[in-house]
Amino acid sequence: MIIRITEVVAALIWQGDKFMICQRPAHKARGLLWEFVGGKVEQGETKEQALIRECKEELNILLSVGDVFMEVVHEYPDLTVHLTLFNAAIADGEPQKLEHNDIRWITPSEIPNYEFCPADEEILAKICEVYK
């Protein structure tokens, strides 16, 4: 059996002591779970280019992409993702809910109040560790 891995990128965007989380639309896989903004890397794109494009499409913001915060491989029943989370900042624009059900800014201590996509669990644990 061949396992196809989907390359996915996401952004860890801080504003002061809070970071941005987005709630997936109800009609999508893992609907209404919380996640970091981002999406699939398209053919011919670098991970950074994909992240900039996704943030423009989903939030109408211009992103400044920094270094990699963490990488995770997670197997869902329907797909396996290789998620690369980048440190990032909003270079221009105010986040808009073009695709997501909701957008929130939370502190690491508020993480337990939200139900996240399973692929993000390891990342959230690291955020709690690094930003105590």
Key phrases:
single chain; 132 residues; alpha+beta; Nucleoside Triphosphate Pyrophosphohydrolase; seven-stranded mixed beta sheet; 2 helices; 7 strands
Work out the helix count.
2
Gyration radius, in Å:
14 Å
Count of domain modules: 1
Distance between the termini: 42 Å
Summarize the structure.
The chain is α+β, with helices and mostly antiparallel strands and about 130 residues long. The protein has helices spanning about 45-60, 120-130; strands at about 5-15, 20-25, 35, 40, 60-75, 80-90, 100-105.
Per-chain topology:
Blueprint: E1 5-15, E2 18-23, E3 34-35, E4 38-40, H1 47-59, E5 62-75, E6 80-92, E7 102-106, H2 121-130
Parallel strand pairs: 1-6
Antiparallel strand pairs: 1-2, 1-4, 2-3, 2-7, 5-6
Structure, explained:
- This protein starts with a strand and ends with a helix.
- The longest helix has 13 residues.
- The protein is α+β, with helices and mostly antiparallel strands and 132 residues long.
- Strands 1, 2, 3, 4, 5, 6 and 7 form a 7-stranded mixed β-sheet that branches.
- A hairpin with a 4-residue loop joins strand 5 and strand 6.
- It has a single domain, classed as Nucleoside Triphosphate Pyrophosphohydrolase (Alpha-Beta Complex).
